[in-house]
Task: structure prediction
Amino acid sequence: MAVALPLHGGCDCGAVRYAVAGAPLLVYACHCHDCQTRSGSAFSLTVVVRTADLSIAGPLEVTRTTTRRGREVDKGRCSRCHVQLMASAPAAPDYASLLAGTLDDAGWAVPIAQIWVESALPWALIPGARSLDADALDFYALGEEWRATAPAFRPGASPTGATA
Result:
């Protein structure tokens, strides 16, 4: 299966739109309480991309927060509907984490791993996604593993899965 680049996404009201010109680096699920609270759901599904591949149009409001573990995170929300679209860490400015639910089509975004499973709602564990200790998480190695099984991302690929 081929996935068309750029990937597109946006907020609920449509005021903020984004495009990702390059292939994502990693997809994983997080079951921590911060993600549950922020998403209003059982977990968040995160798509890691290079910030150089990301373009954003519209009234994005960025606020810096500190996680329960003391890590600073910049969260990007639409200033109109307040939907959070992404997050980035000042300590890793070359990467951004998109919330998969804000993509126009996230059907390809299958997580390779899930973290903070000790906080997971029992029914929300994802079959096929390995449970990993967040403290020992090696994003680079996990990303290489995910990309080895990810769909092909191609400029101009047909949205139906066939290449152009």
